[in-house]
Amino acid sequence: MEGKNKDHRALLNQGEENELEVFGFQTHNLRRALCLTASVLTCGALLLVLYWRPQWRVWATCVPCPLQEADTLLLRTTDEFQRYTRKKVICLYLSTLKFPISKNLEQPLVADHHSVINQAVLKPELKLRCIQVQKIKYVWDNLEKRFQKVGLLEDSHSCYDIHHMFGLGLTSEEQEIRRLVCGPNAIEVEIQPIWKLLVKQVLNPFYVFQAFTLTLWLSQGYIEYSVAIIILTVLSIVLSVYDLRQQSVKLHNLVEDHNKVQVTITVKGKGLQELESRLLVPGDVLILPGKLSLPCDAVLIEGSCVVNEGMLTGESIPVTKTPLPAMENTMPWKAHSLEDYRKHVLFCGTEVVQVKPSAQGPVRAVVLQTGYNTAKGDLVRSILYPRPLNFKLYSDAFKFIVFLACLGVAGFFYALGVYMYHGVSPRDTATMALLLLTVTVPPVLPAALTTGIVYAQKRLMRKKIFCISPQRINMCGQINLVCFDKTGTLTEDGLDLWGTVPTAGNRFQEVHSFASGRALPWGPLCAAMASCHSLILLDGTIQGDPLDLKMFEGTAWIMEHRNADYCKFRVSDSSVIIKPGPKAGQSPVEAIAILRQFPFSSSLQRMSVVAQLAGEEHVHVYMKGAPEMLAQFCRSETVPQDFPQQLRNYTKQGFRVIALAHKALSVGKLLEVESLSREKVESELTFLGLLIMENRLKKETKPVLKELSEARIRTVMITGDNLQTAITVAKNSEMIPQGSQVILIDAHEPEEFVPASVTWQLVENQENGPGKNETYINIGNSSVPAGEKGSCYHFAMSGKSYQVLSQHFNSLLPKILVNATIFARMSPGQKSSLVEEFQKLNYYVGMCGDGANDCGALKMAHAGISLSEQEASVASPFTSKTANIECVPHLIKEGRAALVSSFGVFKYLTMYGIIQFIGTSLLYWQLQLFGNYQYLMQDVAITLMVCLTMSSTHAYPKLAPYRPAGQLLSPPLLLSVLLNTCFTCIVQICTFLYVKQQPWYCEVYRYSECFLDNQSDFSTNMTLERNWTGNATLVPGSVLSFESTTLWPITTINCITVAFIFSKGKPFRKPIYTNYMFSFLLISAFSLTVFILFSDFQDIYQGMEFIPTITSWRVSVLVAALTQFCVAFFVEDAILQNRELWLLIKKQFGFYSKSQYRNWQKKLAEDPTWPPMNRTDYSGDGQNGFYINRGYESPEEIPKGKPDGRGQGTEQHFWTRL
């Protein structure tokens, strides 16, 4: 049984972000027939439920079976949302191909022995089973007994395999097999037909409930109100459909050109062939003739090229790609060395701007992935299938709606009881009971909740902040930690040259200052600066990395394409020639040719080139990179002894330091340069010296960091730069306040007999570096939350140390993270991992970067803000067109305002439903209800207008030192709704009972003769007599009564006053009077209600179905409503919104934050041994590497709370979960 269950279930994409559980089912005809019969009997209601719940549909119509036999699959996400989808298994037959295929079991279908295709096709039937999930195709692997992805080359291939198995191309037969199995190489975004979008919207559970409500109201003659709601609903649906259609068209247009590229490939045995890119398959050999938009992911195997990856990263800096080495080993190609494999990969959607053929022939690349498996396909899929947003507001809102629905159900049974007791006909009883059921859930709820976000989005656009995930705006209101990249974010993007420090005879020489205006003297250092870069000459202009550009400009040399004058170099035409410019120093060398490049990568922290000087037979290697890294590749005798001290001296001053090295290399022929390995080139070098560059802070950095600090929003720096430079920038920007201690964490991997270790070293507190004169503003304790007075220390570490801590000191990492401020030399993967670790501590994390190497972290954070030039960079949810960090406080302010607005609107709509429910329930007691125009006034003139304008109040210009409540189910909010409900109950019940005690009161609905005899006391207009004549018996559903005339102004004024009370301004929004439209509508609605209450116009009374009462009674009604407002306003403002009072209550009753980081802060503040300083700790066990500080930890002190999900992905409206 256990084995069968195992066969029934499997995992898809195991260990990946989009991991899914798959369950196998077989369709059962009898069950299908029963379901169909039940659907007919329930008039389609069962079909609707099965549409909303695909898992119920599968359970109802199918029986479980092993996956191998399944014709229907049920897929479930493994995240906290557990979403289900249903998929049909499709069978493909290779016999449909135009050429004969061997049915021999021993003979493989494709030459690639790693390919899943050989294991997926059943022989002799030539059949394979597949499914398509979120645009990705999976085939059933008969050997592994699981579904496997197709449309890509397996990662298990070695470099040798790729060169020799695919280097000559695929046979045309194998191409056809792969085309059938993998599908077309196309990223097709279908423009959804309008009817499909309409059906999808209309079948939303909320709209189905609304349709039921409106049908009921129309049947009861509530024509005007029903029409108003129908217009609103239709408008809402049309706008939603239009918006979805526009997004669909925009995305379709974005990817459409990708499918129409003409490419040239090599076919085995046939030579070159030109075809449309949609026919490409994994394993094809692509010829790159020149400029081209890449239609697939491919790995370069011959020649090199320059690619613009702006579409992927948001940064339009040309990147040089080099061919995959043809190494003879069995190691997977991605792991053949520690090098970054991405430098060999050409990604789909990126632009090839320049190609450099090798001596062997044109630039060639093997197709790795096609269609939606590519990098661009992955981005498009993330837009098409966003992960649901895990935010407490939406789950709490869903619970609130369930509560209101339960209230409605209670009302339904109450109405049934009352009407049955009075002997009303079953039809009328059911109708009136259903009417009360629909009162509690307001039909404007979906529109009202998105309004605040729409307003915030428009305000952000005015500040040049663009958003592709609007639901995240509310999340921004909860941000309490912001991570910043350094270069280009906190500091200026362009670096200024400060000077060079050459070496000679194992010693540093005199500094050459660029400010002096003197030309850089010729020497190996000058040659290295002129040639060791990835700059390219494109249409006569030099393009590339700003750092490389600045360094090259400092030499005053120029770059040009090789021509006949340079035939002495004996190199290919594609080589670039560098020669001294008019302002360059005297040089014995006429020109330098770059023969080979080993590009820079974040993980390697270095780059090198092989170059030839004019007139020389041998070649030179020039290398530049991070000083600490580069020194390891140099001969120790060439590195000055005071190198660490000199480096520290410059980095402490905040300079960006780059080291340069060189060696001469003898090669027999220049062709041998192409076959040189990086390991051979980058060894035994001579240290040349240091290039010092200034990286100035942007003028906005300091004020913004101060503003965030005063708002008690923690700031962290994550950079790829040197640790000392990062510490200096953090101090100069006051990210680390004056007087704070910086503790350096240096962690080391375990060695043969030594376990992993971590060293804590206090950095010298040198406030002002030499040559700097920074003035510091003492923020004092404004940035230190209560309970953290002793925590004026900051941890700083490198990416390497962070990696060791993650792997070997799991339990130590959270303690460090709550006070870690600087993370230097971080790789893109480490940046993403760090953001995730912060989220596990229950921080709401914002990430601000330039989009280049921050893509993963920007996507991972709750709010990623890219400072790239592109309007809606797919790299992050938010994009600022202003390239400084001023966008961060703007976004947080708007997020807070939108969040508070959402809460206000939700509270208002809840109270509005409850107010109407109480009033209607009281009238039901005597089988009455409010009139059509009475409802219309409340629903359209007040509620609809309020909901559309309540959220347009602008954000408060100053950030408060605390965040708004993050969840609806919080004590202040629940108490607010509860107390306002109590006040409403008391006032409505009292007036309902008190009106019956008045001497002029008459039960109009029961005794019309009594009323008509006494009518002259209340009105002189006898023409109303006919309209007011009723039966002497109880008439269900009648409107006219003193009770409804009294309750209507009470409920209407109550609706207006709660809208005012729940529209709190400061500290997160501007005062209510600044929202002119909202204020005008409230005043107008209140004035109109008072006018109707005190007017004696026949038409008004007839239309509104009121009975005139004496003036003193009307005054009493107004006083009662205003008294309720005063009490409610005082309670809300002085008690429920009183933060100090709530903090005192929490303290008295011992309530503390459940956030992991708060728990750690509290524990660490009480720990006398923390923070450790000037000591080394070792992991408790070298095998599994868990750190145990026995003087600190005990089992009961470890926080046990499960961390919240990180909440990635984009919006999913909570009402779709109904």
Description:
The chain is 39% helix and 18% strand. The protein has 1218 residues and is of the alpha+beta class. The protein has five domains: 9-150, no CATH class; 194-257; 392-464 and 892-1004 and 1039-1137, Calcium-transporting ATPase, transmembrane domain, CATH 1.20.1110; 476-491 and 698-764 and 792-881, HAD superfamily/HAD-like (Rossmann fold), CATH 3.40.50; 498-694, 3-Layer(aba) Sandwich (Calcium-transporting ATPase, cytoplasmic domain N). The strands form seven sheets. An eleven-stranded mixed β-sheet has the order 20-41-40-39-21-34-38-37-35-36-42, sandwiched between helices. Strands 22, 23, 24, 27, 28, 29, 30, 31, 32 and 33 form a ten-stranded antiparallel β-sheet that branches. α13 (392-421) packs parallel to α28 and α15 packs parallel to α29. The protein starts with a helix and ends in a 40-residue tail after the last strand. The model is unreliable at 766-790, 1012-1035 and 1181-1218 (pLDDT under 50).
